Amino acid sequence: MNDRIPCADPVGVPCAAGIGLRTCHFREILGRRPKIGWVEVHSENFFGAGGQPRHWLERICEHYPVSLHGVGLSLGSAGPLDRDHLDRLTRLVRHIEPGLVSEHLSWSMAGQRHLNELLPLPYTDEALAVVCAHVDQVQDVLGRQILVENISRYLGYRQSTMTEPEFLAELVARSGCGLLLDVNNVYVSAHNLGFDARDYLEAIPAAAVAEIHLAGHARIGGMLVDTHGTRVADPVWELYAATIERLGARPTLIEWDNDIPPLAVLLGEAERAAGILEATDGIAA
Amino acid sequence: MASLHELQMAFAEAVLDDAPEGLPEGLLAGGRPPGEGFGLYRSSVFGNYRKALRAVYPVVERLVGERFFAYAADAYVRVHPSRCGDLNRFGSRFAEFLRGFPAASGLAYLPDAARLEWAIEAVFSAQDPDPAALLPLARIAEVDYPGLKFRLAAHCRLIDSPWPVDRLWQLNQPGVVWDEEFDIAAGGVSLLVCRSGFEVELRRLGAAERALLDSLAGGSALGPACEGVLEIEPSAPIASMLHGFLATAALQVLPPERDRPGPSR
User: Fold this and answer.
1) Is the complex ipTM higher than 0.90?
2) Which of A121, A158, A260, B126 has the fewest Cβ atoms within 10 Å of its own Cβ atom?
3) Which residue in the set A48, A51, A119 is minimally distant from B41, CB to CB?
4) Strands A100-104 and A66-69
5) Residues of A whose CB is below 8 A from B9
């Protein structure tokens, strides 16, 4: 079956390659204004109401489509969402009106304690109900769709009754959220948990994928770790090309958060992604 | 079968509390023993906490060294676990922790250095001063001046310390050459930590300035606040002090009480 669909074309963020923008590159981006399709920032880094971070983000918004990517909402925690965190996100979203808003399929809060890490969920009916309720709440409060991203996993759970693609498909069907497909995370999790990455990509609800992430990983012991600290690995590029072949073009982001290289390296990686996007006939923008 | 809540509590406990009896039940790792994957999460969690503290407290880290800082950071997590999904807020009680941390008791000034760094962090991204904040003053009759009330603006903080922490902070910035004359016991300071544009400035306050700012920020009306200052320093130039605080928007005028929304009846 050909699942290719026309580009979802989320408001403002084109089906082009973008980069994750970190503080060390703001000044250079604003000074040089390189040709990149869009940028993504971590929502929590702009929760402050003023000062240089907010000023820079506003200037960036004048020149590039922006996506807000959250890491701290803990959509998968049993119990209520942190309302203060959601309120701060809401204020930021209303202020800059980003093209996309995303969070993770993970948990990080247990009781009152935050582990501030993207931890894996058991894929059970109970977890699905929790994540659906939280996604519903976030989408209601924000008044817009959010995207939910698959994480890199180093562990699974015996009690899971669904695969991750089955869980994501149900989440999409019940909540109406979109998906942020991190191809590197699929590759890393497939290696660590022993499933086939291509089977995974065949099984995800293709039409819901509104954004793709690419990042580097490292091998530590017998495991692959999602370090965001190197170039995208060749097998991940191959998997990405196969993903685009199946889905058609999607907004694609190069993420790099540790040992951040010169901007030119990031732009080079984005150019490589753009080459793959442009080679498909689903290209837009 | 454990509920999601039980599973997450057990997982968090095993990560945070050094549970020696091992891992939560039911973990899988593609045929490998799950300890390796669990260890990755554990080191990442503590690594993230340390990184978050390091980002806010570079001077404290420089004063105690990397290894001691990491040790203190890991101990801090156990006393004050993270309560927020935004790691930028994680270090809010680090100064308070250091004050009671036996291993740091030999560095009595360390908690105040941390308090200053947290204030700097807070004002760095606080709400910008409102350029229209002075406008209400123009509409207030002179006779009403003694009843005026103010608040300390969001981009400013007051810090008192028995140590010269501003100088300590400045000398521990990257590239600054250590001043051999510096004496940590040279006496205390009152500081106005205030953002000017995007730069955070540390301004030493005299006793009268400190008293005026503290009194007004604490909710006193201008009249009683001035009387208090004059008791401390009879010749204090209150008008020019006040003008300075208003010009830098450190103080913001509150609307007269009759214009403020009252309790609903």
Assistant:
1) yes
2) A158
3) A119
4) parallel
5) 110-111
